[in-house]
Amino acid sequence: MAVVSVQQPSRAPAHRQSEVWRSDPRRALGRLGEDLAATHLTRLGFSTLARNVRTRAGEIDLIAFERRQGTLVFVEVKTRRVSAGAQGVRPEQEPLSRLRPRQCARLRRLALAWLSDPTHSRPRARTIRFDAIGVIVDGRNRLLRLDHIEAAW
Fold first, then answer.
1. Which domains does the chain have, with CATH numbers?
2. DSSP bridge pairs for 48
3. pTM for this model (two decimals)
4. Which residues fall within 8 angstroms of residue 57, CB to CB, at 6 or more apart?
């Protein structure tokens, strides 16, 4: 899977964005996880069609497409930070352990809304898939582990 170009939703101007990310550590951590997930998908041959797609019902973290296989992927990214002195990752720190059936159903509804919106240009896909990517970083934002579950639901 690979993520290439990113279509940004409308947000505050760049100078304001950096202020928002600095003032909200959760958003900054989420953005870091999405960046790492997008890089991972790019290495797998996917290109990013959209990122942080907002609708009334919520947000899709990443939408990626792999041309050779014709696979369109809607990705939920969960990111956790572990302290520098921690010995491994405790079960409650596993990012993907927090995925719940409600989130899965929500992502399906969001994907349907995105696919139904005539304003988006979308590739012709043979397969549509819902993946989950869990990212764990340390206190210095270094990647410790990335877990990718294809067809997570």
1. 14-149 (3.40.1350.10)
2. 64
3. 0.79
4. 106, 109, 110, 113
